[in-house]
Structures are given as C-alpha cells and as structure tokens.
C-alpha cells in the first residue's frame, strides 16, 4: 500500500506577517509537523534549498518579490508541492497562482485544521503521482510504468495496453478494494453505465496471464458486490 507521510511533514512557511507566521508555525508544530519559516522571498528560497521540505506554504504578498514570481523561480528548480496562502480571494488571482505552479491554495483567514488537511491532501496526491511514475512491486509481481512492462517472478508478462493499465492501476492501490465503477471511470475513462462485463472480461484475461483463476486467486481477489483487490499471495508474505 502507499505510505502517505501523513503523521509528519517537513514544512517551510514563507509569510511576511509575523502574527500569521507564528500562529501557523504553532498550529502545525502541535500537529506533529516540523516547521521552518522565512519572512521574505529571498530568505524563503534559501530556506527551501537548505531544508528540502515536503511542502511549502507561500504567501503571495511578500515585501521583496511578488509571490507568483517566487512561485515561478521555485518551480524552475524544484517540484516540491506548494500551497499558496493569500488574502486575494478573486477567482482570476487564484487561477494565475495555480497556472504559475501552485498545487493548492488557502484564503486568509484560515483555520489550523483546514491548513493541516490541505497539507495532507497535497502529500497524498504527490505520493500517488510518485507511485504512478515508478515501478510498483507486489510479491513477485513488478509493474514498471516508465517502461510499460510487467514482470511475474522475473518473467515478462505479455499484456495488451489495456491489461497493463488495469494491472498498474490495481498495483498502485495494492491491498485496497477497487470498485468496478472506478475501474471503468479511471482506466477506461468512460462513464459508468453498468459496464461490469467489460471489466470482468479484462480481469479474466489478466488472471489467465498471472496464472490464476477467480476460483483459485493468487493476486487478483474478487470482493463480492464491491470490486477487486490486488495483493501478494499469503505464501509470499
């Protein structure tokens, strides 16, 4: 399963307002996060390079440089998730910040619980993207997204593009029951309209190539009236 870094994140706050900065530091520290801060864009960039945080909270109204310009500079050197914190609530401003590279935003004034939830949500999305871009290993099954190849006990599986996408989607979510509705929507990119048969047929083909059946599953386990779960055989731990 994906190991979300939800218990603690390393956070850098770039905010010139001392009251807001101090309040945010205290609230996030109380929730278990490690927090560093800066009051200007230039100090913020130096802190981010030095600290290598999991997420950055960036105020747009900084005294030495417009926050969007700092966003662009940071995006040129790092892919760290950035949550914009701003008093500018108009939609056009928010869109410009997102287009400049922000991953999310919160509007001042904000509560500590909302800020913490935004951080956790951004980290979840970041880890899902990382898992989608890297090889996923479940037991003796290895699914490599970059090479678009899957291996079972070291042997290459001869999969169609759709079978690979289906296997990769399930492998990234290993241990989790995935509904057929989600498979049809996310793998086939089709609206759900009772298309269970399409999913069932592809799962059957995939099972055959994994050397198993629905009656004697090893990796693909059907959960009646819910969906399917990919997990390592018990014999492999």
Automatic annotation (TrEMBL):
<keyword id="KW-0902">Two-component regulatory system</keyword>
<feature type="domain" description="Response regulatory">
    <location>
        <begin position="10"/>
        <end position="123"/>
    </location>
</feature>
<keyword id="KW-0238">DNA-binding</keyword>
<dbReference type="InterPro" id="IPR011006">
    <property type="entry name" value="CheY-like_superfamily"/>
</dbReference>
<feature type="domain" description="OmpR/PhoB-type">
    <location>
        <begin position="133"/>
        <end position="232"/>
    </location>
</feature>
<dbReference type="GO" id="GO:0006355">
    <property type="term" value="P:regulation of DNA-templated transcription"/>
</dbReference>
<protein>
    <submittedName>
        <fullName>DNA-binding response regulator</fullName>
    </submittedName>
</protein>
<dbReference type="GO" id="GO:0005829">
    <property type="term" value="C:cytosol"/>
</dbReference>
<dbReference type="InterPro" id="IPR036388">
    <property type="entry name" value="WH-like_DNA-bd_sf"/>
</dbReference>
<dbReference type="InterPro" id="IPR001867">
    <property type="entry name" value="OmpR/PhoB-type_DNA-bd"/>
</dbReference>
<keyword id="KW-0804">Transcription</keyword>
<dbReference type="GO" id="GO:0000156">
    <property type="term" value="F:phosphorelay response regulator activity"/>
</dbReference>
<feature type="DNA-binding region" description="OmpR/PhoB-type">
    <location>
        <begin position="133"/>
        <end position="232"/>
    </location>
</feature>
<dbReference type="GO" id="GO:0032993">
    <property type="term" value="C:protein-DNA complex"/>
</dbReference>
<dbReference type="Pfam" id="PF00486">
    <property type="entry name" value="Trans_reg_C"/>
</dbReference>
<keyword id="KW-0597">Phosphoprotein</keyword>
<dbReference type="Pfam" id="PF00072">
    <property type="entry name" value="Response_reg"/>
</dbReference>
<dbReference type="InterPro" id="IPR001789">
    <property type="entry name" value="Sig_transdc_resp-reg_receiver"/>
</dbReference>
<feature type="modified residue" description="4-aspartylphosphate">
    <location>
        <position position="59"/>
    </location>
</feature>
<dbReference type="GO" id="GO:0000976">
    <property type="term" value="F:transcription cis-regulatory region binding"/>
</dbReference>
<keyword id="KW-0805">Transcription regulation</keyword>
<dbReference type="InterPro" id="IPR039420">
    <property type="entry name" value="WalR-like"/>
</dbReference>
